[in-house]
Amino acid sequence: MREMKPNQRGPKSRFLDNNTNSTHYIDWQGEEQTTLLIHGDMRTSRSFDAVAKILSKDSHVLAMDLLGHGDSTWIDSGYRFSDRSDDIENFVTATNLSKIHAVAHSTGAVALAMYAANNPGKFQKLVLLEPMMIVDEKFQRMVSDRGNRPRTTWKNHDELKDLLSKHEVTSKWHPDVIDDVVNHETFVNEHGRVDMKWSSSTLAWKERENDYLNLEPILRSISIPLLFVVGGSRTGEFEKAFQLGNILQNMQTVIISGTGHNMYMERPEAVADVIRKFRNSSPIPEKV
């Protein structure tokens, strides 16, 4: 097998502009087929840096900031699942992408599944990292309550890094991922405090009320190869996904052991490896 050399050119920050909004994305400048990375709530394109560095060794990797996140425009409203799906469609159309491999996490994975179900010709394969199987009022109220809390900020980047390194959840993130979050997913606000690059409007109840869905029929309607990735500590929440993986010929499942919902931030090498194996049609074990 030919040894792949790391991509030495580094990521480039780019923007797509339309009449009202600007979408920011990171171009990792790799070669061969294109892989598109899409984040979930309260994250940005840069949460995928550790994964993107690996994938860009043999793929042209693009990672987009959804509207309201990162350096894309922070609009006041337009964060329902259909809006996020339209956001992905606008990006794919503006960049003239086709036959791409797409990887998305959580809310972003739901939006990607919605778009791909109606536009299978744009994609070769999909990797969905824990999209929610059921989104009901209880779930949306839980998420929206987070947006009602005062935003947590930090006096400097060192304070944030120290917190992330010790927190029960984020201490499980790979050290490189913690550095990426601290260095690239933050900004200094008008009070001189370090803040995170996502708008509280993305969690507003007016965006969440009645925005409910059952992902199962969407997954069933997807015709292209699909890999559904689950964190090892959360298998009980995705029994329906495992059942579908046994029924649908185009769907596989894989468990990333020792991880939670943010498995790609905890074990980026393992997640990148299963993405590459799936892309290359190589065998993937049920658990890694």
Strand content: 15-25%
Q: Tell me the radius of gyration.
A: 18 Å
Q: Give the mean pLDDT.
A: 95
Q: Gap between N and C termini, in Å? A: 22 Å
Oligomer: single chain
Number of helical stretches of at least 4 residues: 11
Q: Which shape, going by the Cα principal axes? A: globular
Q: Kindly name the structural category.
A: alpha/beta
- Strands in their spatial order, largest beta sheet: 1-2-4-3-5-6-11-12
Instruction: Write down the secondary-structure element order.
Output: EEEHEHEHEEHHHEEHEHEHEHH
Largest sheet: 8 strands, mixed
Task: Write a structural description.
There is one protein chain. β1 and β2 form a beta hairpin. The protein has 288 residues and is α/β, with parallel strands linked by helices. The longest helix is centred in the first third of the chain and has 14 residues, at 81-94. It has 11 helices and 12 strands.
Comma- or semicolon-separated keywords:
alpha/beta; 20% strand; eight-stranded mixed beta sheet; two-stranded antiparallel ribbon; 11 helices
Question: Could you give the topology of this structure?
Answer:
Layout: E1 12-17, E2 22-27, E3 34-38, H1 49-55, E4 60-64, H2 81-94, E5 100-105, H3 106-118, E6 123-129, E7 134-135, H4 137-148, H5 157-166, H6 175-184, E8 186-188, E9 194-196, H7 205-208, E10 213-214, H8 215-221, E11 226-231, H9 239-247, E12 251-256, H10 263-266, H11 268-279
Helix pairs in contact: 1-11, 2-3, 3-8, 5-6
